[in-house]
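The following block was generated as part of the benchmark described in Methods. Ligand: coenzyme A.
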Amino acid sequence: MMNWKEIYESKLTTAQEAIKAIRDGDKVVTGFGCGEPFEIERALIENYQSYHDVQIINMLTLGDSPWCRPEMKGHFVLNTLFASTSNRKAISNGVCEFTTSHFYEIPEIIKNYICPRVSIVMVSPPDEHGYVSFGTTVDYTKGTTDYCEIVIAQVNKYMPRTFGNSIKHVREFTYFVEHDEKLPEVKSVEISDTEMKIGKYCASLINDGDCLQLGIGGIPNAVCAQLWDKKDLGLHSELVGDGVVDLLEAGIINNKKKQTNNGRTVLGAAFGSEKLNNYINNNPSVEMHPIDYVNNPSEIAKNDNMVSINSCLQVDLLGQVVSDTVGLNQFSAVGGQVDFVRGATMSKGGRSIIAMPSTAKNGLISRIVPLITEGSAVTTPRNDVNYVVTEYGIAQLKGKTLKERAKALILITHPKFRPHLILEYQKRFNEEPFTKEELKEQFKDVKEHIIDAADQLIDEIKDKISK
Ligand code: COA
């Protein structure tokens, strides 16, 4: 019987050799985010003329989606489950395929509906017992290695070794390709004043002992920056970025009050920089698990006082939330938004928060609108939505009538867009939303904001003309 080292060595090969196992017409699922096996993908791209009709399935790439280049037509097509900067345009042009699904269902959808024959993943080097770790990227990735006929792993010393349900023995892979390269990073950007205000309102809805789900980006980082006076927080989240590391190190998040995985942070994937990867490396207090566990609403709900915080692009006056499309264009995906909104709502004492800046496009458009843009898809239905937060405050929607919802949302709209929404309210409900006194309060700053907005518009037009 071979020992694990002999097994590993017998499977060790080059990327160029390993990819010979891929056939025309294959479906190939790949690890995503910080765990995308770029070395093996580069070999496929270099040899693209040898392949025909191969579909690459990936959740969300931080790479440049080379599959979408014109010369790849007929050779490779990308089927992504989350649009990103490098493939958004290709989706709109019909070059890239997009599959929509709640994140917790993705392992099942890939296994039973898409049915890939090949899985390519990135793992850490084996430990002294012959186990490699899926490190930053367990989510749907680890599961694919249970059912795909061919499993090729890029072994990368930069992949952290993580705990939880994130390891596999070397005997369960077809090929290993050793190639060290730094993982792609999602660096924290500076938190804006608007995001800070939003973070403060969100923090006001968070109590000591709550268990949090935080997405990635400016708003979750702004929320983290406002949690320093809290204690005994928990973390059960599909993805996190760097924003949580300082809170974990300081013990503000200590997972002490969690009903499941007590004392441990639970994640499906890490989406940060070296700071986060160093924190999760060899850290038994962080458990990485498949996403059908992490994002399953009934698992989420097992923790009391679960608070989900997610962002969106548009909310209409009924409270319907659009987070992943702008008209007919696919901007991102639902990801785990609905999984966590529902899990938090089902949790004893739980709350769901949708937080967003009140405007977009440099303040030129309102994110709170009378009607959602034609062609956009509702991401989170109105019946699921409870707290909506902007830099102007908090609108609590559950249990409210349609009129009360609309009024609460108008009150957190940017003041320069409130007159328009008030008119739309009047049209829709055939009555005034506010008393004369309330209106005076509403319109207090409007004149000033409208003059600012007009000045900004004129500057932008001048700028366009001069170009
Ligand atoms: N109409 C048109 N464009 C809009 C818009 C609207 N209503 N709202 C935002 N935009 C534009 C912005 O101006 C910005 O464009 P720019 O970069 O050219 O200025 C762009 O869309 C992105 O908006 P922004 O709010 O900055 O995006 P973000 O990076 O903060 O991400 C979501 C916000 C909603 C897209 C993101 O959180 C998401 O994809 N959510 C769904 C998945 C999810 O919630 N998963 C669970 C947590 S991981």
